[in-house]
Amino acid sequence: MKRVCVFAGSNPGSSPEYRESAILLGRELVKKRLELVYGGSSVGLMGEIANTVLERGGIVIGVMPRNLFRKEVVHRKLTNLHEVNDMHERKAKMGELSDAFVALPGGFGTLEEIFEIVSWGQIGIHQKPIGMLNVAGYYDPLIEMIEKGVKGGFIPPSNGEMIVCETNPALLLEKLYTYKPPQKSKWSNLA
């Protein structure tokens, strides 16, 4: 594992714990000599993690669609910035550049990004580890929904374990290092 893609809110959120978790994750990335791949913004939790990694001498790679440059504030001090045409290209580029994925708290964009990556893993597009940093129980309802999907027969039990969830950034990264992808098919009626 060389690069970790972090999906995070472009807003800071309402709790100081969200900001603190972005900073702690950034410190852990640098400590473990992992490069950060993210959406390229200088604001919100995205900006916090990028600033932390940069301040500690780490490498930060941003990926941002040109049409978002006016709405989101592009981080101008990144190690590398990839300009892409749209959100689809952004996610594809982030996936291509990364060896693992982590979701910090965030809104619709963060949720959409993490679920697309999980879906890609489920159908075999990649076998990279996926994690969620569950800060102050932020992802508890989502974890419960995934468990409900497993119990309801919509998510195979092995695929229900595709997302590694932890409250501690260091422990989350350690679990991503040792992650083994499920070997079972997504489609239960084809097994």
From TrEMBL:
GO terms, molecular function: hydrolase activity, hydrolyzing N-glycosyl compounds
One of the record's GO cellular component terms: cytosol
Entry's EC annotation: 3.2.2.n1
Keyword Endoplasmic reticulum: no
Keywords, in A-Z order: Cytokinin biosynthesis, Hydrolase
InterPro entries in UniProt: LOG (IPR005269), LOG_fam (IPR031100)
Enzyme class, first EC level, given as a word: hydrolase
GO biological process: cytokinin biosynthetic process
Gene3D superfamilies hit by this protein: 3.40.50.450
Any Pfam family the entry gives: Lysine_decarbox
Keyword Lyase: no
Similarity comment: Belongs to the LOG family.
Name of the protein in question: Cytokinin riboside 5'-monophosphate phosphoribohydrolase
